[in-house]
Amino acid sequence: MNNILYLFILLIGVSGYSQDKNLLEDPDYIKFEKESIELYTSKDYINYENLKNKFSEMLPDNYVEKKFKEDFKSWITKNLDKSGFTSVEEAVSLDEAVTASYKKIYPKQEELNKIRITLIRVKKYDGDEFSKLFDERIINKVWELRKS
């Protein structure tokens, strides 16, 4: 019985390794990895990230973006004293800057998301393994490149 369990565990491990290897050799994954690194280290993405962080820091902790996004100007007018903004104009201007910077990166993010979905749902690569590789190979590379 122990031999069967050992064999089963070994097969699962080999299967996982094989799937990682196949994924790393898949032309769609290679494209996904290369273009993800390019996006997340681009000036447009870093600008978006910086603006979004600054905007978020100025808002109260209980701010719910989806609830107020459509009418942010009205909301901030009523809640300016709860925010870190000095004026409604400052808040609206930064909100518009965040939105404009997001619009620059959105098409590439959508393209990469479609590739990711294809790899997981159509080509049937394991989603957990994909996420693990994403963290190990893409996120780590992005942080390494951003530090230099």
- Count all strands and give the number: 0
Biggest sheet details:
none
Secondary-structure element order, N to C:
HHHHHHH
Which structural class matches the secondary elements? mainly alpha
The helicity comes to over 70%
**Approximately what portion of the residues adopt beta-strand conformation?**
under 5%
Alpha-carbon distance between the termini?
53 Å
Number of helices: 7
Give your account of this protein's structure.
- The chain is mainly α and 148 residues long.
- It has one domain (20-147).
- It is 82% helix and 0% strand.
- The chain is built from seven helices and no strands.
- The protein has helices at 2-25, 27-40, 43-58, 65-68, 72-79, 88-122, 127-147.
- Helix 2 (27-40) packs antiparallel against helix 6 and helix 3 (43-58) packs across helix 6 (88-122).
- The longest helix is centred in the last third of the chain and has 35 residues, at 88-122.
- It is elongated.
- The N and C termini lie far apart (53 Å).
